[in-house]
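ARCHIVE CARD
Drawer: 12
Card no.: 0347
Subject: one protein chain, sequence and derived structure
Cross-reference: see card 0346
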Amino acid sequence: MQWRIPAAPGTLLQRWLWICAAPERQFLFFAIIGGIILLALIPPLAGGNETYNFQRVAGIAAVHPLIEPAPVPQGVARLLDQASRQFPQGAALPLHYSSSQFHTLAAIPLAGNIRTTLQPNAIAVLNPVAYIPQAMAYGLGEVSGLPPLVLFYLARIAGAAAAIGITFLAIRRMPFNRYGLCALALFPTITFSRSTLDADQLTNALAFFFAASVLAAMVRPGQISARSFATLVVSAFLIAQCKSAYLVLPPLAFAIPAERYGSRHRWLFASALIVLPGMVMSIGWMVLLKHSFFAGLHYHTWAGDVYPDGQMARILADPLAYAVVLLRTLFATKLAPAALLGFIGVFGPPVEMPLSFHILVLAGLFLVLAGEGGALRPPPAARWLALGAFCAGFVLVLTLLYVQWNGLGAPVVEGFKGRYLYPLAAPLLIFLPRRKPTAYFGLDAPQWANVLGIVAVFGTVLVTWTTYWG
């Protein structure tokens, strides 16, 4: 079935066909509709680790970018404390959130002239780059004297808007499998996380944008423009800062053909300029954390008594023993199926989709990817680099979890979430074969992307409602 794109959308059907004729518009439609509903439906500071992330945003806005004590308005501290009481750890589902609980938080004044010092926590220790839009919105709201709950929603909405906008640009820039990237960006897990105050809002979007930019640079003809090169340099630097595990993504730039730079020497210099600054700064951030916040620190999580310095010392002293821990985690635990379920429809505590929705969403993605066609082929080196980035990123995520979350000398790595794989997934689209577009069951890739978008948004909204309000 061929799409006929109307020159000037008139009727409702024509407008819908116009939206679906471009995957970035299709994504924008579902992301905005689902985002608006979820932003209103997820109770304040109830999605995932919003309490910890909001504290981090408030600290950054108070010009404390490092993981250190930060003075914030008294009302913000009261909001964090009250929200923690409303959602105690281990509460039985459904949570039966009520309007009275919301009004309790809304009634808290800012009290900006009274400062309360918040102590840092081991949950939100990310580079401030991951919170740029949220911290900017929060800061503007605090200067205006807005209530703490409004500051929270400003930060949440700013993160969602930035994530949707950057992902829109990523899908538009993607040189092939654009409907595949659109479908991936509409998965329930990422749809939910875009609507919560979290570092993943910006991280996932920037990862998609960098992957699309570097893949486009690999396959487009002619010499690379200054604008495209600058885009690669900036996006590579930013994604390496957002979360240190994703510093493995910038080396994808080495697969850009040397002809695009004019000579081998220019290729080497340009590639180093794209790759090294972000990687060096990201490693520097990890070293800084090790010798500042984590130095000598002991704390407890559900995964055990954590001692990061001791855990790292054990890994360095006996790398083979840690390799055994990784192998045991991969082959003697339920990591693989749990990661797949988490990638599709587990949003983090406490929201999780039923298995039937997992199957529908996964089937939708398969039909989108199987039906989409294309003729562009990235260089052979791109496949090895994409696979290497995925594997290295996966191991690095496990290692950071083991050091910062798991008990000293734990036999396996615990705490891995499928959502951690989103930034590493987009480059893997290059492994899909280049072929003519194919229709399955009478529907082609754009139509199956519609089906997936409807199922994902409906399922995410339904499960969110029943979890918090049912």
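Annotation on reverse: Strands lie at 70-73, 115-118, 299-301, 304-306, 346-348, 351-352. The chain has a mean pLDDT of 92.
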